[in-house]
Amino acid sequence: MKKKKMLLIFLIIVTCILILIGSYKNNYNLAIQPPSKTWSKEVSVATATTKNAPVILKEENRILIAYENNKNLNIVATNTIGEVLQTKEYEVNEELVNNVLLTKSVDGYILMLNSIVDGEGYLLKIYVDKDLNEVNRENIKGINSTYQLDNNNIVVAYNDRLEIMNTLEDNTVSIPANTIDMLSACKSKEGFLICYMEDSSFIKAITFNEGIISKPMLVEEIAKNNRVTYKNMSCSSDRENGYTMFEQYVKGELHSCRLFEFPIAGGEVKESKPRINESNELINAIGVYSDEEGGKFYTIIDNSYGKKESRRGIAAFVVKDGKINKIEPVTRTRGVCINPYISENYISYLSFRDEDLYDVVIASTDEEFKAINNLPRDSEKKSAITYTIEGLMNSFVCIIIVGFPWIAIGLVLSGAVTFLDYKLSNKQKKIAYIIVATLTTCAKIFFIIKMFYVKYVYMLPPAIAPIYIGVIICTIIAVITYSYGYYSYTSEFEGIFISKFALSLLIDALLTLMIYAPLII
Predict the structure, then answer these.
(1) H-helix or E-strand containing 22?
(2) How many Cβ atoms sit within 10 Å of the Cβ of residue 502?
(3) What contacts 218, CB < 8 A, 6 or more positions away?
(4) CA within 20 to 30 Å of 197's CA: 61, 111, 158, 411, which one?
(5) Which residues of 33-61 are buried (b: 16+ CB within 10 A; e: fewer)?
């Protein structure tokens, strides 16, 4: 009898270990996955206090990322797979930075920031050589807002005009414009599409190609309203149409995102309020040129992580006629990811690290970049361990929440046997134990199927998704745990029935829920 009890204790321990190994493997397989088939895993290149989008500039043999940190500007250089080669800091001591820009020049690069001093906007230009050493500085006053078009061009808004600066060729073209409230731009089929809001009412669009700016096209006139404000304009284009989207706030709260779709050559304008998963919070969107029909945007939404969790991060989507499709996650980290900047097949963004501190992160669709950075990481092993421990803790909680029905049935039945225990012979006590264990096991199987194979069946891994697999799992665990209780109780018949049965009941519930609870909580 003692050997049988020791064997059953060993089987219980082995079962527990196997369940934990299975849970860890499931978590690890999820942790090592990239965010999507298109985008690579994230690569952290720096930490910063900024909340402005870091700017990425790709060259043949290296990548440059510009960002703000502790009131100063920084450039970090990496090789083509994201390994940091060099970091340079440029002192500016500016508390309010609207955005950071980085473009090429004839002799190197121009690092820029847009800010305000004494109520007037300005653009600070720091000229650096190819080794990232500072050469000279220039301060241009009267600039209210800026937007980077590509590695060579930026658009700037003055009180009375828009200017497009080509920093590589050192030339500028301009077009008259009144007060610019919002500004955005993207590549188009033959150049650039620039959208802006003028005088808080007029949404306009222009095209720019080979130094020529088109006549402004009125996309929409919006009635002014003191209760309504607009923020974060973005725009996209496909082969024929332009798309401009911005956030609409009512009394300071996000109300919706408004999207205007218009033919670039002129024609009917369509308005819509796109939503993803019934959510209108498409915040901090960035538009790019789309090779397919529809506008392509990157925005911050809740992305699915596995089957049970969502993480606030960046996703790409295509929108046409107000309908969103082809949603693709770009980020996967547990910390919130914000403020993307897209340059061809590279993206830079911020990932929350700690209070007022972010990781400056890059990712890519480049095959070489993915081949190196999509390999399993030590951090992912630690993440899998953390999730496994969390799952174990959730299993204990679920004993009360999920396991209560069949545990209550088991306690009631065992309590009844305990009450009649003095009238039963040893043989009858054995039979009573087997009957109570069988009924409790049937109750457990019923409630497990009801909860996990009906309500949450879509969350189960394929390996245990069939109902008969669930029945087998529940039965095997019950046979092992209740057999231990049976031999423990019948070895001397001196213990109280309910105490011997309750121990097996709780072990059975815990082992069972260690399999299922982590999958939904």
Answers:
(1) helix 2-31
(2) 18
(3) 202, 203, 204
(4) 111
(5) ebbbeebbbbbbbbebebebbbbbbbeee
The answer to whether 179 touches 162, Cβ cutoff 8 Å, is no
Taking the C-alpha atoms of residue 173 and residue 213, their distance in angstroms, rounded to an integer, is 8
Dist. CA 494–CA 156, nearest whole Å: 88
Least confident range from 270-284, 396-410, 440-454: namely 270-284
Nearest Cα to Cα of residue 148 among 172, 128, 164: 164
Residue 253 CB: number of other CB atoms within 10 A? Answer: 6
One-letter amino acid of 447:
F
Where is average pLDDT lowest: 427-431, 444-448, 502-506? 427-431
Query: What number of other Cβ atoms are within 10 A of residue 164's Cβ?
Result: 22
What does DSSP assign to residue 179? -
Q: What would the pLDDT profile of 116-151 be if each residue is shown by its tens digit?
A: 988 899 999 999 999 999 999 999 999 999 999 999
Cα-based torsion angle of the residue sequence 435, 441, 445, 447 in order, rounded to the nearest 10 degrees: 90
Structure-block tokens of residue 343: 């340059």
Q: Mean pLDDT for the chain?
A: 92
pLDDT bin (cut points 50, 70, 90) of residue 1 is: low
Q: Give 413-437 pLDDT, tens digit per residue.
A: 999 988 887 788 888 888 999 999 9
d(CA 285, CA 233): 8
The gap from C-alpha 484 to its chain's centroid, in whole angstroms, comes to 46
Q: With left for phi above 0 and alpha for psi between -120 and 50, is residue 170 left, alpha or beta? A: left
In 3-state terms, what secondary structure has residue 465? coil
On whether the CB atoms of residues 115 and 137 are closer than 8 A, the answer is: no
Beta-carbon contacts of residue 121 (< 8 Å; ≥ 6 apart): 98, 114, 115, 141, 142, 143, 144, 145
